[in-house]
Design a protein that fits this description.
The complex is a heterodimer.
Chain A: H1 7-32, H2 35-44, E1 45-50, E2 57-58, E3 64-76, H3 86-93, H4 97-110, E4 116-122, H5 124-132, E5 140-149, H6 156-159, E6 162-164, H7 167-172, E7 182-184, H8 187-191, H9 193-196, E8 201-207, E9 213-216, E10 232-234, H10 238-247, E11 253-259, E12 264-271, H11 284-293, H12 302-305, H13 315-325, E13 334-336, E14 339-342, E15 345-348, E16 356-358, H14 360-366, H15 369-380, H16 388-400, H17 423-430, H18 454-465, E17 469-471, E18 476-479, E19 492-494, H19 502-514, E20 529-535, E21 543-550, E22 557-563, H20 573-586, H21 598-603, H22 610-653, H23 655-669
Parallel strand pairs in A: 2-10
Antiparallel strand pairs in A: 1-8, 2-3, 3-4, 3-5, 6-7, 8-9, 10-18, 11-12, 11-22, 13-16, 14-15, 17-19, 20-21, 21-22
Helix pairs in contact in A: 10-20, 13-15, 14-19
Chain B: H1 3-12, H2 15-35, H3 50-70, H4 73-97, E1 99-101, E2 104-111, E3 114-116, H5 118-134, H6 144-162, H7 167-172, H8 177-182, H9 187-205, H10 208-225, H11 230-257, H12 260-269, H13 281-291, H14 304-307, H15 319-351, H16 356-380, H17 398-416
Antiparallel strand pairs in B: 1-2, 2-3
Helix pairs in contact in B: 2-3, 2-15, 3-17, 4-5, 4-6, 5-6, 5-16, 5-17, 9-11, 10-11, 13-15, 15-16, 16-17
The chains are: A alpha+beta, B mainly alpha.
């Protein structure tokens, strides 16, 4: 014992304080702070996504419209690459030396010691010969994948295509998609994406610090299997579809055919079309830009996006509303002098033809403009000229019940609503009270501001065929192996016209084909009821329109055909429709009394002159692009502000790091 | 030696210390097994693996411990200068023929796959000579001459180890300041060294000008409060001048004296730079390992950070990660508690010695053990810069285990003999 004895307590005290500090720190990182567990898990757990195969799509008879084929991605790990015969390598996968260098450089830039994609989507034949020599190319691997294939190269606008996800999609999906995933971009691939894509599986692996797998996590207790996408059964008839596409070759326009008793769409032609296989595989980029630059715009989905004035094909609807409203009876007679005087305007019948005394059926059969102008005026003026606007809106409401001016709710993206103007529109144009029935008289014969999509036209025919109701038109009739049908497709939509009023109109429509404007399209042994339309066009020749259903009793098919810039409805649209109807009802096409054959129509080229067509299209495109640029810039401003807010937030959270950055900057400065 | 003496000798051994020693060795052995577990050689006594080797080292250490206990105490006192001399020779030798491992020329190859690390043995030989010198008659640390000689005894091996260069082992000798303090060194030394370390860190973290401003204000306040005491004012002003000079020299020390990897380690510790993939990788992964252990740990051989080798040097300097990860906070408390218990026991043993030699040596043991434990564990949880020194009795390595065994058991021997006359 000496005089410094008490210093043992000082030393013990220092030791104790420091040890307790260590314990406190241990308590903090082991008990309080949960981050380290997360970090440790992300260190060792590698989550591998198991991609399911996309669901196939069949036609109504079970024929395959789209399925999957295996393709092969070549991947490379630059670290493992050793010198090899690059010339042979390039020859095997069909690239040149420059392309090889470019790809390898890209892979090295991505990561010098991690695997990345070298060449995408090698078809099976190239893969087979490459696989044989794979051992000669160290560091290169092959990764199998599947892509879509279309055995009949048909129905491109219906099927749509898939593509790599955009940042937008990733954001919208709340992180379900990851960069490099595929997603439906258009058509049924888009609208049924969630069903087609299936369910991804995950496999959690344990890896060591160098990323070498060390077995599954928890013996696979948290792994899930990928569930393949469900099969879709489409309502299309592939034979009908192919015939329709053939008939519409070298023409602009559309065919839509609906089964009235179910609302199932049998035929969905948009012309010009393209081979959906072009949107798959290594040449996809080139093909897509070629198609995009095609002046006739094959990506335009005419059945639901193109707006046409219905022209005379609107007349049956007009008549039905008038009868239902009681302004005419089927027996109401009208004397047609070859023109109709509305206000101070004189509206001629087609080609100035004098129809004489006509009743309803005859007016439909002979497409008498005067009769329907009269009907329209009666409807609009029923409460006096002062109440034109309310009467007009009432009429509009009745027309809208048939599905005009609104989306029918087709199970496809980007459906258009057409145009069915309101009284307020004319109030704006002519100021309030400044217009009368005579001002808008052309609506009565399906012209003027009235615009409809081919789908809407076909749906009107389905309604007439059903004598007063329609089922929502749809392209997918059943989902999955259990053939689930959406409930909404079993609901009848009534249009507010009693079934008894249909007979005189249908009589007239029968006559149209029997001896009227579409007599050339008569089908032996089948009573088809139809109506031609010859709709005036802003540019070039008139659009040829024909709507019909057949047979008259217990109808099986309702159809609308539009051929742009082709002329009269009876000359082009009606014969084309008749072939489709006959093919569907008889499974073959018979000799026609009129002597027409499908081949004539298949070979005809009615593409409009580009000198007239192109400027019009360019105008449209410019308008669209201005609109999209504006939308983009709004989106960008939004995204920027979100980003800024996020940055501000992290900056506030990390005051410490901000301080140390300041410090580093100061030290660097001195 | 008579039979009677023998019996009394075994009665006098402090079995508590021996028990603590054995417990720590066993914990070390099992955790090395977990840290470098090899599926092809799962047996913990398989000599082809590091855990098998550690088992051999433990056995050898126990034999050495028994031999030390059988030696005559007087022998240890008498030979202290010789031990010191041999160590110094070895330290010079290692600079000439040593093997360079990881940038440090610290090992002498002994053949048969065994290597000797002289710096480990310098610890107990320095303690011995320091104890011998300070316990001599008429030597007082308070006298300048004695203090300088004591400092030289400590400083010489430091210098040699610095040349290897092995900063970690060099710094261990700094802990002997506690011994000098216990023997009468002015407490100002402790205060000043504490102050300097604080100033060093603060200067790195904040603008030196602000630091100086705060110091000046503090000095002014104290002078204002005690304005009658002239001597104090003078001391404060001199102290202030020294502090300011030190603050300005920190920058110089930082960029010229310390090596780039050392400044980097300090920067990472203080959060001035973050580099989780490069320089900061070890500490970050080590913190993840320990932090993810939670309360009860992931279980023996189930630590993912450990098993999949995310933490480098996990059986040696970073062995505490395995304990923290697989045994959790509970295991950490047990290990830290065992160390604290051992160190306090060593201080207790030192204080009950009659001879100054034994007491001084005992404090040396306590200081060295304390320094190793605090620096090693502190480094794995990121409160101390990365300094590569082993965790006593637990880290893998024959030299370190053997030298700590010798260090501790010399004290046990001296203690068992405390009733006799040295």
């Amino acid at each position: 014992m000496n005089k410094f004895f008490e210093r043992r307590y000082v030393i013990t005290g220092i030791f104790l304080v420091i040890m307790i500090t260590l314990l406190g720190r241990l308590y903090y990182i082991q008990i309080v702070d949960d981050r380290y567990t997360l970090y440790a898990n992300s260190n060792v757990r590698r989550i591998q996504i198991q991609y399911p195969s996309r669901g196939p799509i069949l036609d109504r008879n079970g024929k395959i419209l789209v399925q999957n084929v295996p393709i092969y991605d070549i991947t490379v790990n630059p670290k493992e690459v050793k010198p090899f015969d690059t010339l042979e390598f390039c020859k095997l996968i069909g690239i040149d030396k420059e392309g090889f260098d470019k790809r390898l450089l890209k892979a090295i830039k991505y990561s010098p010691n991690k695997e990345s994609i070298f060449e995408k989507q090698l078809p099976f034949e190239l893969y087979a010969s490459f696989q044989e020599k794979l051992t000669e190319f160290p560091g290169f691997y092959v990764q199998p994948r599947t892509v879509r294939t279309y055995p009949d190269s048909t129905a491109a606008q219906f099927l749509g295509f898939i593509g790599e996800v955009q940042d937008r999609d990733i954001m919208r999906s709340n992180g379900y998609y990851r960069p490099g995933d595929y997603i439906g971009v258009t058509g049924v691939e888009k609208s049924y994406e969630q069903i087609l894509r299936g369910q991804r599986g995950v496999k959690i692996q344990m890896v060591d610090s160098r990323g070498i797998p060390k077995g599954s996590f928890a013996n696979g207790a948290f792994d899930t299997l990928a569930r393949p996408g469900e099969r879709l059964t489409s309502s299309l008839d592939i034979n009908l579809q192919k015939l329709g596409e053939k008939l519409m070759k070298n023409k602009l326009g559309s065919i839509v055919a609906i089964e009235p008793s179910s609302g199932e769409i049998l035929c969905y032609v948009s012309s010009p079309t393209y081979d959906p296989n072009l949107m798959v595989g290594r040449e996809r980029g080139n093909n897509a830009s070629k198609l995009y630059n095609d002046p006739y715009n094959p990506f335009f989905i005419r059945p639901i996006q193109a707006y046409y004035p219905p022209g005379s094909s609107f007349k049956p609807l007009s008549a039905l509303i008038a009868i239902q409203e009681g302004v005419i009876t089927p027996e109401t007679m009208y004397y047609c002098p070859g023109y109709y005087i509305a206000g101070n305007r004189r509206i001629p019948c087609f080609h100035g033809e004098v129809h004489g005394a006509v009743n309803l059926s005859k007016a439909v059969a002979e497409s008498c403009n005067g009769y329907f102008d009269m009907v329209f005026e009666k409807l609009i003026n029923r409460n006096g000229a002062k109440k034109t606007d309310t009467s007009f809106n009432y009429w509009r409401g009745n027309v809208a019940k048939f599905g005009l001016g609104t989306k029918l709710g087709l199970d496809m993206p980007n459906e258009g609503r057409g145009n069915l103007p309101r009284a307020s529109y004319y109030d704006k144009v002519y100021h309030k009270g400044g217009w009368r029935s005579s001002t808008v008289i052309s609506l009565g014969i399906g012209q003027g501001e009235l615009l409809a999509t081919p789908l809407q036209l076909a749906n009107i025919e389905a309604t007439i065929a059903n004598r007063g109701f329609y089922y929502k038109p749809h392209l997918i009739k059943a989902i999955g192996d259990k053939q689930v049908i959406k409930h909404e497709y079993n609901v009848k939509n009534y249009v507010g016209v009693d079934s008894q009023y249909f007979k005189p109109v249908i009589d007239g429509m029968e006559s149209v084909v029997d001896y009227g404007t579409a007599k050339g399209a008569k089908i032996p042994g089948i009573i088809m009821c139809g109506k031609t339309g010859t709709a005036q066009n802003r540019t070039g020749k008139d659009n040829s329109v024909f709507v019909a259903f057949a047979p008259r009793d217990n109808p099986k098919i309702a159809i609308a055909v539009v051929v742009e810039n082709a002329g009269q409805g009876g000359t082009w649209a009606a014969p084309i429709a008749s072939f489709i109807v006959e093919q569907y009802l008889k499974k073959s096409i018979s000799q026609r009394p009129s002597g027409i054959t499908p081949d004539y129509y298949i070979n005809a080229n009615l593409l409009p002159d580009l000198n007239i067509y192109l400027p019009e299209r360019l105008k449209e495109r410019r308008r669209d692009s201005i609109r999209s640029v504006r939308a983009d810039s709004i989106r960008k401003v939004k995204a920027d502000s979100i980003k800024k807010a996020a940055q501000l937030k992290t900056a506030n959270n990390n005051k410490q790091s901000g301080l140390s950055a300041l410090l580093a900057a100061r030290r660097a400065g001195k | 030696m008579s039979v009677n003496n023998q019996r009394s000798f075994f009665f006098n051994v402090d079995w508590l210390t021996v028990l603590l020693y054995l417990a720590l060795c066993t914990i070390g052995w099992f955790n090395i097994h977990a840290a470098v577990f090899d599926e092809k050689h799962p047996s913990i006594i398989d000599a082809s693996t590091n855990y098998g080797k550690q088992f051999i080292y433990i056995n050898v250490s126990i034999v050495v411990a028994i031999v030390i206990l059988l030696l005559e105490s007087r022998f240890l006192t008498a030979l202290a200068p010789a031990f010191y001399g041999i160590t110094v020779l070895l330290l010079i030798l290692v600079l000439v023929i040593g093997r360079n491992v990881g940038g440090n020329q610290a090992w002498i190859n002994m053949g048969g796959g065994f290597r000797l690390q002289p710096s480990e043995f310098a610890k107990f030989s320095t303690c011995l000579l320091l104890a011998r010198y300070l316990s001599s008659v008429n030597i007082k640390v308070t006298e300048l001459r004695s203090f300088l000689i004591a400092a030289a005894i400590i400083g010489f091996p430091m210098l040699l180890i610095m040349l290897q260069p092995d900063t970690g082992s060099t710094l261990v000798f700094c802990s002997l300041i506690f011994v000098l303090y216990r023997e009468g060194l002015s407490p100002y030394f402790l205060v000043v060294s504490g102050l300097l370390i604080t100033l060093f860190v603060v200067t790195l973290l904040y603008n030196p000008l602000y630091v100086i401003l705060v110091l000046v204000l503090l000095t002014a306040l104290i002078i204002f409060l005690f304005k009658r005491q002239r001597k104090l004012i003078f001391t404060m002003l001199v102290g202030l001048a020294i502090c300011v000079a030190f603050i300005f020299s920190v920058k110089f020390i930082y960029s010229h004296v310390l090596k780039p990897h050392q400044t980097e380690r300090i920067n990472i510790l203080l959060g001035i730079t973050t580099d989780l993939k490069g320089k900061g990788y070890n500490v970050n992964q080590s913190k993840i390992a320990i932090g993810s252990g939670k309360l009860w740990g992931k279980g023996y051989l189930h630590g993912t950070q450990t098993k999949y080798s995310f933490v480098p040097e996990q059986s040696t300097d970073f062995i505490f990660c395995t304990i923290g990860e697989e045994w959790g906070f509970a295991g950490s408390v047990v290990v830290l508690g065992l160390y604290l218990f051992l160190i306090l026991r060593v201080i207790y043993l030192a204080e009950r010695q009659r001879s100054p030699f034994s007491r001084i040596y005992g404090y040396g043991v306590a200081s060295v053990l304390f320094f190793h434990v605090v620096i090693n564990i502190g480094m794995t949880i990121g409160v101390v810069p990365v300094i590569g020194i082993p965790l006593p009795f637990i880290s893998y390595g024959g030299s370190s285990l053997l030298s700590f065994t010798i260090l501790l058991f010399i004290l046990v021997k001296l203690d068992s003999n405390r009733m006799g006359i040295v």
